[in-house]
Amino acid sequence: MKILSWKVCGQLAALAQRQIDAVLDRTPDILALQEVSAGNYADWCERLMGAGYSIVSAVDLTGVPYPEMAPPIRRRYFNLTATKRPIAPLAGLKFEDPAQSAVAFPEKYLVAAVLVDGTSVEIHNADLPPSETLGLIKAHAFQAIRRRVDKSPDRPLVLCGDFMTPRTEDDDGVSTWAVSHAKYNDEWDAAERSILEHPVLRDVYRERHEAGTDFPVSKYTRGTPHRYDHIYASPELRTVGVGYLEDWLADKLSDHAPVEAELALAG
Q1: Beta strand pairing status for 229-233 and 157-162?
Q2: Mind listing the pLDDT tens digit for each residue in 8-56?
């Protein structure tokens, strides 16, 4: 199965149509989108459904009010997963602490079961929330994601999307954004690494990366290149191929380049 994960950044009108054209040209079996918005949702649904895809999304969760704060926060974006295979939505993230739950962004995490050759594969579509001014919310999201993926140890699983990390990486490993959050350093570092260095799920790109070569870029932040967008897979899925469509950055289709992987059931 070919899975394409892409943060479309809420683009509208003609640019949204260019994004849809580009995606349909790639003919993914499974499409995981982040930052779909009310303004482009109808376009994506119409074109994808017209091409034979079924869709699940977190659009309904954008209506959940966010706690009052200054400046106010509104739920503008949500995730969408589409496939031509049988698909069913599953439960998303849970936060045992009510205070964490109140300020979480559930619309940025979408889980679905997709039937692949008679086997149910969980697709976890993630878009990590902002961290610059919101304390530990991003770290708490990583912790919740770790709890959620660990609840599904007995079926093939894919975790993909925009993780907004690592800060840097090389052949020896990664660094996290804990350095920018000294007040929470240890907890922040552990939260990011709980996914980046998950003991079971693997980064399918790092699995295939040729030592000594440059890592691809999926996002520039103030001119600094990062590989923020990822596809992780469980051992039940083997990697056939993986790559980043960096030319879509050059074409200004989005601020993020998609990551695309061909995966197959092992055995």
Answers
A1: antiparallel
A2: 999 999 999 999 999 999 999 999 999 999 999 999 999 999 999 999 9
Q: Check residue 184 and report its DSSP letter.
A: G
Domain ranges of the chain: 2-265
CATH 2.60.120.10 fits 2-265, yes or no: no
CA 158, CA 149: separation in Å to the nearest integer? 9
The DSSP bridge partners found for residue 5 are 32, 259
Helices 38-50 and 13-26: crossing angle, nearest 10°? 30
Specify the pTM: 0.96
Cα-only R_g, the chain? 17
Q: How far is residue 136 from each of residues 163, 183, 196, 220, measured CA to CA in Å?
A: 15, 10, 17, 23
Residue 15's φ and ψ, nearest 5 degrees, are -70, -35
| Residue 146 and residue 251 in contact, taking contact as beta carbons nearer than 8 Å | no
**Number of Cβ within a 10 Å radius of residue 38:** 13
Q: Could you tell me how far CA 119 lies from the centroid of its own chain? A: 22
Residues 6+ apart with CB under 8 A from 201: 149, 157, 159, 195, 232, 233, 234
Element (H, E) at 175: strand 173-175
Residue 9 has which token pair?
């950044």
